[in-house]
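Quick question: what would this complex look like in 3D?
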Amino acid sequence: MRTSPSLLSLTIDSALLNLSNIADLSPLPDHIVLDLFLLPARTRYFLSSRHSTFESQLPLSFLPDVLRNSEIVLISETCTSLDYRVAISCFSEALYFGIELLFVFGKMSLAIRDDEIDIIIGAIRSDLTSFMNEWRPMFSRFHLIIVKDPDLKEELKIPEGFNLDVYEKSDIDRVVGSSTSVLFSGYACRYFGYLVSRKKYIISVDDDCLPARDPKGFVVDAVAQHITNLTTPATPFFFNTLYDPFTEGADFVRGYPFSLRSGVKCALSCGLWLNMADHDAPTQALKARQRNSRYVDAVMTVPAGSLVPISGINIAFDREVVGPALVPALKLAGEGKFRWETMEDIWSGLCVKVVCDHLGLGVKTGLPYVWRTDRGDPIASLKKEWEGVKLMEEVVPFFQSVRLPREATTVEDCVVEVAKAAKERLGSTDPVFARAAKAMLDWVNLWKSVGSISSSPAV
Amino acid sequence: MATVSPTPLLKDELDIVIPTIRNLDFLEMWRPFFQPYHLIIVQDGDPSKVIKVPEGFDYELYNRNDINRILGPKASCISFKDSACRCFGYMVSKKKYIYTIDDDCFVAKDPSGKDINALEQHIKNLLCPSTPFFFNTLYDPYRDGADFVRGYPFSLREGVPTAVSHGLWLNIPDYDAPTQLVKPLERNTRYVDAIMSIPKGTLFPMCGMNLAFNRELIGPAMYFGLMGDGQPIGRYDDMWAGWCTKVICDHLGLGVKTGLPYIWHSKASNPFVNLKKEYKGIYWQEELIPFFQSVTLPKDCTTVQKCYIEISKQVKAKLSKVDDYFNKLADAMVTWIEAWDELNPSVAKSAELPNGAAK
C-alpha cells in the first residue's frame, strides 16, 4: 500500500504529531514547512514553486510569505503538471504560524490520442451494416479490428468509411497455426484481435449491441466513457460510498484514508447493458418479458479480493498492462452462438480479476451502457445446454481460493500459475477444465510469440 | 412499476433514534413518513435546556442526566457534546430495527420529482438479503427489474441476512474538512439508482446521517466511540462504528448494503471547526485502516458481543502505541458491551449463529 518511509519522512511525521508543542516554526526552511502542511497530500503530489502572480479565491492575508506571489505547480505521479490554486489548512495549534492555509486535491486524467485505441469486434453474424452504421459517430475516429468467427460461412458485410482490418479463418490459421486456431472459434474470435492489436487500449462490444441513450435522451458515447474509466485511477482498497471519486461533482468521502486517494491504475472497464441484460438462460427464460431499463449513473471500482462475473459484451482494457490475462480458455462442450451458451468471458474475467488483485491493479464496473438487442430464445438455449450454469459452482470457489505466489510479478507468470492451479484442482472434475488450463498456457505462449512483437503487425 | 407486495410498515418493530442539541423542527417535514413510529431522542449538551418535540409524535427523550442515572458509572462510555451520544438510543431501544437520522436531514426528491420515503427503502433493504460473497454487476439482484447476471453461481443466490442499510445524501456531501475547504460549493446532485452489498473483506466509511440496522443482528457493534468534550477527536464516531461493524458482519456472515435511499442534507458544518475535530483522525485513520483490514476473529467468537470484546482487546494491544486515547477507547468498548448486556438481558447472547460456527 505504501513504500517504506525515509528518515526525512519519519522526521516530518514525528514533527507533525508534535506540532502543537512547537512554538516557533520560523527557523524551518520553506520547503520543509510546505512539506509539513501538505503531509496528508504528500503521497500524491510533489510541489515546486516558481515566482509569478498568484491568483487566489482567498484573501492574500491567508497565505504565508513563502507562498505569496508564487505560482505553485503540482506535479502528479504521472508527471502531468497542472496549475492549481493552492492553500493549505492550518490546524488550530499551528496558528502560532499566524496563517490560514488550504490544500487542494486535484483529479487528473491523461490525454489519450486516438491512435492509442483499437476497437475490436468479434463478428458472430455476417451482416454488420446496421451495427457499424449505428456506432459510426463513436467508432469512425478509431482503428477497428474485425475478427470473423471461423465457423461463420457467409461473407462479412461491412459498410464503407472505416479504418479497419478484417481477419478471417485463413488469417488466424496462418498466424497461430491451425492446431491452436481452435482457441478462437465462436465468441472467442475477438481474442485473436486482442493478440494482433498493437494499441494500448482496446474496446470491445458484441455485434448485437447498439449505442444506448441516457435518461436525458442523449446518446451514450461508450468509447469515451471506457477511456475515461481506464485513464482515471481505480480505488480497490477501500470502498467510496459516493462511487467514482474522480468523476465530476464527486469526491472521496469523510473517512477515506488520504494515503489511498491516489488510487491505482485501472486495467479493465466493464460496462453494462440496457434492454437485454446479461442474465443466464434460466433467469431470462423465467422472466421472459424482463428488460433492464434502470440506468444507474455510476462507475465504481470492484474492491480488491472481491470477485465479479465480467461480461464480455461491453468491455475495455489496457492491453499493455493486462492483455495476456484475458484468456480464451473455457469452451463449453455445447458452446453456441448466443451468450447464454457461453462462459468464456466469465472465466476470462475471473482470471483478470485475480491477476489484478495480485498485481495491485484496478477493475471498474458501471457506465457505459450499451443497448443490447433481443436475439435468440433462452428456453432453446436452456434445453440445449445448461452446462455453463452447473460449471460455475466449481469455477467460482476455485478462483476465490487461488493464491498467486509472490514471485509471480508479471501478468504472464500469473496466468501460468492460475492455469497450473486450474489443472491441479479442477482438471479431474471435468475435462472442460483440463482443456481450459491447457488453453491458457497455449495463449500465454502465443502472446509471447505473436502478441508482443513490437515491430509491424503479424499479418 | 408494479411491486409484488407492499413494504410492511414495521411500526412496532422499529425505533427512530435522533440525536439533537438544538431543536427538532426538521421532523415536520418527515411527519408523513415518521409519525407511525416511536422516536428515541437523545439530547446532547445542556440537560437543563428543553427540547420541543412537535405535536403528535410518540417519543421518549433522554438528556445527559437520564444517561447518567440509567448507566451510573458506565455512562462514561457515552460521548458528550457530540452526536456520538446517539448510540445510547440504540442501547435503550427495545425494538428489532433502528433508523437513525441527523436533525439537518430532510426529505429528498427522486429524479421524477417525487418525495423519497427513506424509511420505507431502508426497511426494504433490511428485509431482503445481501450478496457479499460475489459482486453482482447489476447491483441489488432482488430489486424489481433486476436479477443476478450470467455467471453468478446459483448456490450463492439465496444471499445472507442484511444487518445494515447505509443510505446516501443529496446536496451537501459528507466530505472531510480538507475537502470541504477546497470545494466549499460542491453539491452532490447525482442520483445513483442502486443499492449494493459491500463485498466481504472490504471496509467502507459508514456515515451515521441516514442509517438503518437490525439491532438484533448487529446492535452491540454500533458503538459510536468516545468523541467530543474531553476527547482528542471528533467526527469519527460513525467511522469507528462502521469499521467494527463491517469486520463483525464479515465474520458472522451478515450483509451490509449501501446506496438508496437518499435524504437531503441541508446544513454544511463549519469546515474550520471540523478541521480541529478531525485533525488527529486524519492521521490516525492511516493506522486504523490497516488495523481493521488485518483483524481476524477466532472461530469461537459466535456472538456480536464476543466479537466486539475481542476487537477491543486487539485495539488495546495494537493501537495504544498510536495514542493513549485508544487505551481509553478499548476500555469504553468493554464498558459499552457491559452496559448493553445489562440493559438487554433477555437477548444477552444476541443472534447466535444456527450451527454455532462463524464463516
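Answer marked as accepted. Chain B touches chain A through 68 residues (CB under 8 Å).
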